[in-house]
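Hi L.,

You mentioned the student needs an example of a multi-chain input paired with its predicted structure. This one should do, with 122 residues in total across all chains.
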Amino acid sequence: MKKLMIALVAMVALTLGVKAQQITDSLTYTKDGMAIAKIKTSAVCEMCEETLEKAMAYEKGVKESALDVNSKILTVTFDPKKTSLEKIRLAITKTGYDADGMPADKNAYENLNACCKKDFIH
Ligand SMILES: [Cu+2]
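Structure written out for the whole complex:
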């Protein structure tokens, strides 16, 4: 009986652990079924904001996006039936910026304006 309890507690702990991990990747949803993702980027200035928001405007399934330059968080509202968080992150890396854990595409990064590179000393 005691063993069963231990197994049960371990299982609950495991489930909670998995849940906690998912939160970092979590999306919120609007009433009409749109998903909202908050993606950490390597953007540094208003020009990055324009570049990223423009790239998102052309991205399939994306309804709107807004970058907060201070926190570098890009908030993207998208249709989960047409695209996914992974695809959006990929599009961000192809624009030249890091997206959460994904590193920026090298060539795209090289093509960024000098002031938009994360290594640039401001
Ligand atoms: Cu910039």
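You could point out the following to them. The mean pLDDT is 88. Helices lie at 2-23, 46-57, 85-95, 106-110.

Best wishes,
N.
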